[in-house]
Amino acid sequence: MAALLRERAGSTSATPSRPGPTRARTKRKGFHGRRRQTLFLLMLPGLVYFLVFHYGALAGNVIAFKDYVPFDGIWGSPWVGLGNFQRMFEDGAFWDATLNTLWIALLQIVFYFPVPLALALLLHTLTWSTVRRFVQSVAYLPHFISWVIVVALFQQVLGDTGLVNGYLGDAGLSTVDIIGNPDAFQPLVVAQVIWKDAGWGTIIFLAALSQVDEQQYEAAALDGAGPWRRFWHVTLPAIRPVVVLLLIMRLGDILSVGFEQMLLQRDAVGPETAEIIDTFVYYQGIVGGDYGFAAAAGLFKGVVGALLVYAANKVAHRLGEQGVYK
Amino acid sequence: MEKPKPVTQAAKILALAAVVLLVCVPFLVILSTSLASQREVIANGGWVLWPTDPTLKAYEDILDGGIVTHALGVSAGVTVIGTLLSLACTVTLAYALSRPGVFGGRPVLLLVLFTFLFPPGMIPSFLLVKELGLLDSYASLVLPVLVNVFNLVVLRGFFQGIPEELYEAARLDGAGDWRVLWSVVLPLSKAALAVVGLFYAVAYWNSWFYASLYLESDHWPLQQVLRTYVVAGSGITDTTTGEATVNAPQTVQMAVLVIATVPILLVYPFLQKYFTKGVLTGAIKS
């Protein structure tokens, strides 16, 4: 209400002082109001981008219902109804890719998700602020390194001729076969995600932790609560909403597991363990040229993914937490 | 509060030291290997932790014209131009959407936010770029990713946080919307602009997938060259001369890796500086 009053006061007092044709002054509500016209023009480049590259591409999803022929283009290719989807549902490779996606996402939730939380708690209890800031700076860094570099670094450290195997060999121990080994691939993927993003992931937990009133700790300590009980009754309730929210969001996004990361390494270990829905779409469509079929798989993922995010948000609200959107 | 036990304190320090080493050692290995001679690298089995006789030969080889030099130029150009274009479009859209009462503001905001929930998909995006005739043009690396919704939301939130009184004061002075943006909003938003600009720059610099989709190999940026040399371990065919490069030696591979990493390390302190200002945590929370 106050904002509304301020807005009204602002526009009435500003109008007389602004030079310009009378029409612009009297027709403030419509498109032709001068200041709104400027704002509208400022909005245009970004708006055109979203209309062309998001909604234009979104409309291109019609090829999921067509047999795409490059020569005829998106609109000229013949319709095949739900044929692509039917093929997809009958394709064992698609279901293998879906299972891989879900399995890797689950591994990440179990093994990656707690790491930033633990690291944040560790950093939070560190009283030495210079050390704390230094560790934070170092730990955030890998987030900004490209997946190409991360995968290359892992090759250099864990590969056949890498650092770890070099030391193991020198020590007369048996070497480890990690890079290019399908059996080790899924744990490797999780390890890479931990290396790259665990540090960055602490930010949101640290923000929640910094909201805790220091006096609560002191009061709890005065009441005779030891470190463990203080953690249980003061720290944990403070970060619980963030943890629940992030977990729900991750569950909503369960069909996505790092496309670039998987694409970079799929060829080395084979599709059995490394094919996810996104790489399936890539290999069927871009590599195989079966665009309609690949678009159907992508559209399926998009729709199910959006429904999952929507459902996850509903659950978050049901639990009394703030969702991603209202 | 009582002092923590020395044992717990030591365990904490040890754990944090492990974190720091896990991040730093891989970088040290690639830097050292890139500075070693190829002979030393082979003698040591593929890597060097500390070169006995450091040399810049690998860097001279790749910066002496040729694929890597060209790729470096492409990456730098795309990063600079892409970041400027992205910033311009994001700032103007975020500003328009942050002011009350702009014609169509509400529907546009919903339109933009919906793309976050439902991305268009790889195949339609690829076909769109193809039909627009952008294949094998550098524009294909920039235009399809011009405005990032997350960055847009960060900036819009920041603009909305600017006190209404400042807008009023500017309007009283007779400033139009364009002038308010340029002389009031932008100077007040330096921290937010820096963060968003750096995010765009890092994203453009790190991008390789679109290059692999849309560009011929002689137009590739550095990350895609790196991917081919190091991750896939193969050479690159020059499409104009038909000449294939052989697999790059280990020292050269590592030198490319270092060159691809250095710009990130250079801008990182600036990024770091703004994390503390709460630009991001505020945005993430909202």
TrEMBL record, chain B:
Q: Where in the cell is it found?
A: Cell membrane
User: According to the lineage, what is the superkingdom?
Assistant: Bacteria
Regions crossing the membrane: 71-96, 108-129, 141-159, 180-205, 252-271
Q: Name one GO cellular component term.
A: plasma membrane
Every ABC transmembrane type-1 domain range: 72-271
**Among its keywords, does the record have Cell membrane?**
yes
SUPFAM superfamilies named in the record: MetI-like
Pfam families xrefs: BPD_transp_1
Task: Please give, as recorded in its UniProt entry, the membrane topology of this protein.
Answer: Multi-pass membrane protein
Q: Which UniProt keywords apply?
A: Cell membrane, Membrane, Transmembrane, Transmembrane helix, Transport
Could you state one GO biological process linked to this protein? transmembrane transport
Q: Does the keyword Transmembrane helix apply?
A: yes
Tell me the protein family, please.
Belongs to the binding-protein-dependent transport system permease family.
Q: What name does this protein carry?
A: Carbohydrate ABC transporter permease
